Amino acid sequence: MATKTYPFDPAEMLDSPEAQADFLSQALATGNLSEVSHALGIVARAHGMTDVARTTGLGRESLYKSLSEGGKPEFGTVLKVMGALGLKLAAVAATDEAVAGE
Predict the structure, then answer these.
(1) Among 25, 54, 78, 98, who pairs with 94 as Cys (CB 3.0-4.6 Å)?
(2) What domains are there in the chain, each with its CATH number?
(3) How much is the pTM?
(4) pLDDT exceeds cutoff 60 at 71
């Protein structure tokens, strides 16, 4: 009998606000817009994309598109989605090592 495999969906692992915030923080730390958009989409799916769309007033399909890998959401969309997820963006001072590493 052949072994059946299933695709891994990281959204299934993000079952708490803390896990979601940590996942998104790691993506933000990369500074890669594509990775941040994709991570935000994964967190939105973990939360429930229909609920996120309803709360933000944005279309579910447009959220899927803009929050996919390679998506380029507007900053206002990012802020609305973050609010719908119960998360917020915060600025922290970059360490000298982080700035030197760029």
Answers:
(1) 98
(2) 16-100 (1.10.260)
(3) 0.83
(4) yes
